[in-house]
Amino acid sequence: MNDQKLRIGVVGLGFAGRTALEAFSELPDVEVLALAGLEKDTLTSLGEKHHVPHLYEKWEDLLETEGLEAVSIGTPTQLHAPIALKALEKGLHVLCEKPLARTVAEGTAMVEASKKAGKVLKVIFNHRERGDVAALKHQIDEGQLGRVYYAKAHWMRRNGIPGMGGWFTNRELSGGGPLIDLGVHILDLALHLLGEPQVTTVSANTFAELGPRGKGSTVPNANTLGSAFEVEDLATAYLRLQGGGALQLETSWATYRAPGDNFGIELFGTDGGAKIEVQNYTTVDTLRIFTDVGGVPAEVKPATGAGLGHRAVVQEFVRIVQSGDWAAHNGSEALLRTEVIDACYASAKAGREVVLHD
């Protein structure tokens, strides 16, 4: 396949779909063959801008495009499984926006379909492609922190419920609130940095205090009250890890705190510590390494680049597909994240710890 362009179809015209479309369009060895979305004007304008020959309102029609080899899914979470399953059944490779799916059952079906088809299923976890995360991962892999035994990861918004009254706040369409939306990102970051430890138990709480009262969104509207908000607006979880480590997750769309949209992670190791703190998506001066120099506490502030984010994931997806070595890329790692998020919701609902692995 290296001697021809990879022919891609992109589904979704929101932020995720547009970001993927732009990233694919930049690559000389890729042809965006088709684009699908319900917003007619946006579909037309994006199609013209990126010279996409086939435009569809329905994703089902896009999958029928002759010559298509892969599909990128940037839709509400409810559609991840239906589109991916149909695409894999047709022998297409799949790049899917996070989270993999709403539930473990949906995610498992997707992974099994990938294995059966022998095609790639990759999920977009773009924040692990940040420069500060890559630099910290290198430090950890080089043994600079020793054994990391405790980690805290957060993504907290003061006033950031997305699409109040839309699909994000509808449980059937989204699968949940900030835990499945933002929490899956910081869970991925933590497990990636820690070397993919197995999560053994989960104890979680979820809260819906501001959203149901029409608070917590920068664009309030008539749909903000009552049952239109069906998910949590804050979640916290304590995860025990195989080998004795622990991970604390904290995430919110809306809560009374300092203004902004902030995420990060703090690691505590036997030989050092580290912290990434990102304020409003900045990529500057975000990483700290804590160590001793000559027995005296010291703080190192490494200079890190911005990283490529979504573009890095898209490039990696194309590289994997073109390599022909697909067997290891079936969505299994993303499914582990879905299993943890599912367990968090189950724990919060039951009011007790949930055991994932003995």
Secondary structural class? alpha/beta
| Rg, Å, rounded | 21 Å
Largest sheet: number of strands, sense, barrel closure? 9 strands, mixed
Mean pLDDT: 93
Helix-strand pattern: EHEHEHEHEHEHEHHEEEEEEEHHE
Helix content: 25-40%
Spatial strand sequence of the major β-sheet: 14-13-12-11-7-10-9-8-15
**What coarse outline follows from CA principal-axis ratios?**
globular
Number of strands: 15
* Tally of contiguous helical segments: 10
Low-confidence stretches: none
- Measured by DSSP, the beta-strand proportion falls in 25-35%
Distance between the termini: 44 Å
Note down, in words, how this protein is organized.
- The protein is an alpha/beta fold.
- Helix content is 32%, strand content 26%.
- It is built from 10 helices and 15 strands.
- The strands form 2 sheets. The protein has a 9-stranded mixed sheet with strand order 14-13-12-11-7-10-9-8-15.
- The longest helix is centred in the last third of the chain and has 19 residues.
- It starts with 5 loop residues before the first strand and ends with a strand.
Summarize the structure.
With 358 residues, this protein is of the alpha/beta class. The strands form 2 sheets. The chain has a 9-stranded mixed β-sheet with strand order 14-13-12-11-7-10-9-8-15. A 6-stranded parallel β-sheet has the order 3-2-1-4-5-6, sandwiched between helices.
